[in-house]
Amino acid sequence: MADLTKLDDEDYPAYTTGQAARMLGVQEAFLRSLDAAELVRPERSGGGHRRYSRRQLALAVRIRDQLDEGHNLAAAARIIGLQDELTQAHDTIADLHRRLGDDTR
């Protein structure tokens, strides 16, 4: 019987490079370049083929958006990293406010 829980798993490596490129509207070479730069590291199949998860594809889209805004790859990676850190900090602050019973922010 099929394991349908994998359908909801954002980290399940379900997409080949070709499928991922078509879904995102990018060239396969773009995805390979993200792997070479160690920004998006897909898992490998038994045959060595790249397999991307939904979470990795979402990150690739964020990187592509930054590149489209004129940033180079290093700057795009730094911007996304800082955005993620800020989001995490906001989540932590909101959690602390909830724990303290302070909903008046």
What does this structure look like?
There is one protein chain. The protein is mostly helical and about 100 residues long. The chain has one domain (about 10-100): Multidrug-efflux Transporter Regulator, Chain: A, Domain 2, CATH 1.10.1660. It has 4 helices and 3 strands. The chain has helices spanning about 15-25, 30-35, 55-70, 75-100, and strands at about 15, 45, 50. The longest helix has 28 residues, at about 75-100.
Query: What structural category characterises the helix and strand content?
Result: mainly alpha
Contiguous uncertain segments of 5+ residues: none
- Fraction in helix: 55-70%
Number of domains: 1
Average pLDDT for all residues: 93
Distance between the termini: 50 Å
Largest sheet composition? 3 strands, antiparallel
- How large is the radius of gyration? 17 Å
What overall form do the CA principal axes indicate? flat
Q: Please count the beta strands (DSSP E, at least 2 residues each).
A: 3
Number of helix segments?
Answer: 4
